[in-house]
Amino acid sequence: MRFVDEFREPELITKTADEIRRLADPQRHYRFMEVCGGHTHSIYRFGLKDVLPANIELVHGPGCPVCVLPMGRIDDGLSIAEQPNVIFAAFGDMMRVPGTHGSPLEHKARGMDVRIVYSPSDALKLARNNPDKQVLFFAIGFETTAPSTALTLIRAKAEGIRNFTVFCNHVTIIPAIRAILDSPDMRIDAFIGPGHVSTVIGCRPYGWIAANERKPIVVAGFEPLDILQSIVMLLRQMQENENKVENQYKRVVPWEGNRGALKAMAEVFELRPYFEWRGLGFISQSALRIKDAYAEWDAERRFSVPGIRVTDPKAAQCGEVLKGVLKPAQCKLFGNECTPEHPIGALMVSSEGSCAAYYNYEHRKAAQLTQLTGVSC
Amino acid sequence: MTAAVPKIRFRDPQVDMAHGAGGKASRRLIDGLFAPILFGSAPAPLGDAAHINVNGTCVALTTDSFVVRPLRFPGGSIGELAVNGTVNDLAVSGARAQALVVSYVLEAGLPTEILEGEVRAMATAAKAAGVVIAGGDTKVVEHGKADQMYITTSGIGHLIPGLSISPAAVRCGDKILLSGPIGDHGITILLARGELDLEADLRSDTRSVLPLVEALADAVGAGVHWMRDPTRGGVATSLNELAHDCGLGIRLAEERVPIRDEVRGACELLGLDPLHIANEGQFLAVVAAERAEAALAALRAVPGGRDAALIGEVSEQPAGSVLVTTLYGGSRIVDMLVGDPLPRIC
């Protein structure tokens, strides 16, 4: 398959892994944070940790939109959908995320009209096709998905579609990285920058990480070779004592970002003064809300929203895992009370969440493969 | 004397879609509720068909319900699935289907044209599979109480001589064979629903796998240790069940698993794992290592078996789990499907 197989070529991967081994100082321990949940998923799916030397540790970052969404927001969204004649539409990612009284899928099993959509414009299509219903689109995601929500709202307004609203939970990546860097227990040497987000915002917004925080950052693609190559680039910077923003994902990410997408976002959204992140707490200017000009399509203004706040169970150590202080398996609940089937903490919910990825692809391997060398019986 | 009270471990408060998706939740429902109440304290490993003794003759018996939307899709329809599914469940339990009985649950308002089309599809599929449809039953429910039509087929078959399959027969070093490319059915259905605005030139793989199973039995007989058709939950779920039942590990070489580019592409776009996608015309077989080449050659010689592949082997570790390895030395554990496969967007 073109544009995929080239980046999974075993020979190139082995070569790049050799290069990493050559560049990495064996006396030193490296901690690189992959900001984006898509990277976390790839790292586990392709077993990249098996390819890397032991002194390069990958720490999973906050870039999983489902994971950082507080449970209260899900409760709020579902409470709107409990009103008669409402269709609740969301990405597949949201469907198993638990609210206080169950996930959207469990609400569907109890009779709520819940639809999985592939894009916000599919939700708008639902509204067109069901003029006697209200369609609520539960919007999540970083700058990756925010432009398509913005374009959908622009179209809804242009077409005068009144039975469509957006419950906006879009967040922005830079404040989350800042929160992690500001955390006192932060011990990250460098960053693998988010690929999809950067197709929209470009590479410029990461400048402060290199200039002020003196940490290298390389924006990377999602294939095994992309991730390994970005590690080579980080190691080279460290060897040269440099701190730069570099773009490994040039085939997709323009340095300046996507002007059209940014323009659509600026037309529809403005920054919220603050927003709660699951595991990280309140972060100022870290999320988007819908501007007054689109108030009619803003579910938070069209409907009465209870504004539910739910504190995470005390035993769940999502915040520490999210900041890279703890590994998933070091959390007290991991694998016993908290599993992908019955997630308690947010990171166990999405396949991009570090706990779910670790659980699905790694933890039994870690437990059982310690003696797996030359198996025979 | 009082009968022992079976221990019910199923604690989910309500039935969810996941309980029917063939993955972990389905297994929990069967092991935790159905098995203890219906089969008592010592249930046999849950195979695709029950083998029962009727006056000294061992026969295989199975049943399956079909609830697919849309009813017709590229490569097949609910009628063909209903015949092939039950024929295949019997085949992978080591039996040749003799006769089927069929139950229809029809929604009032279903156009006769659609019903007739599906009944004809069943007749054609039964003829192709060499099985008789011996009887049936029809129920009609009010409009809105069912999704057009549901079909249940139950089948009886005689055992194929020379085969003796069970998880207990599986040994370390055994090889794992797959009859052909995976994911065609599941992705075809996903796309046929038209909700994703994606198109691909794909057809469901629905077919009887009996000719392939018989070729395998002819070629290696008792060298076949286990078989399963990886329907809902896909190859990953079937192999996890095997790993669980036999207490050994399964190691798959990712690059050896045959997958069409269209299926891989759709899975990449939607964030799905092809190993979790449903198949309706493939089966997995575990065969003794020294018979693996002969088994593979036999499968490949059957029309429709050209893409059969040796995809992995049984090992001591990781006990009870499935490990997928890549060409460059990476590896990952692949679990049973949790719930339905959902597209991943953000």
Order of helices and strands of chain B: HEEEEHEHEEEHHEHEHEHEEE
Tally of DSSP helical segments of chain B? 8
H/E element order of chain A? HEHEHEHEHEHEHEHHEHEHEEEEHHHH
Indicate the mean pLDDT of chain B.
92
Q: What is the architecture of the largest domain in chain B at the second tier of CATH? A: Alpha-Beta Complex
Beta-strand portion of chain B reads 15-25%
Proportion of helical residues of chain A? 25-40%
The secondary structure category of chain B is alpha+beta
What does this 3D model show about the protein?
The complex is a heterodimer of chains A (377) and B (346). By secondary structure, chain A is of the alpha/beta class. Chain A has a domain at 325-362. Chain A is built from 15 helices and 13 strands. Chain A has helices spanning 10-23, 37-45, 71-81, 104-109, 120-129, 146-159, 173-182, 195-201, 207-211, 224-239, 259-268, 299-302, 318-322, 354-361, 363-368, and strands at residues 30-36, 56-63, 86-90, 113-116, 134-141, 164-170, 190-193, 217-219, 245-247, 269-271, 274-277, 281-284, 288-290. A 5-stranded parallel β-sheet of chain A has the order 2-1-7-8-9. Chain A has a 4-stranded parallel β-sheet with strand order 4-3-5-6, with helices on both faces. In chain A, helix 2 (37-45) runs parallel beside helix 14. Chain A starts with 9 loop residues before the first helix and ends in a 9-residue tail after the last helix. Chain B is of the alpha+beta class. Chain B has 2 domains: 45-159, PurM-like, N-terminal domain (60s Ribosomal Protein L30, Chain: A); 167-333, Alpha-Beta Complex (Phosphoribosyl-aminoimidazole Synthetase, Chain A, domain 2). In chain B, 29% of the residues lie in helices and 25% in strands. Chain B has 8 helices and 14 strands. Chain B has a 7-stranded mixed β-sheet with strand order 9-11-8-12-10-13-14. In chain B, helix 2 packs parallel to helix 3 and helix 5 (210-220) runs antiparallel to helix 8 (292-301). Chain B is globular, with a radius of gyration of 20 Å. The model of chain B has no long low-confidence stretch (mean pLDDT 92). At the A-B interface, helix 1, helix 2, helix 4 and helix 15 of A face helix 7 and strand 14 of B.
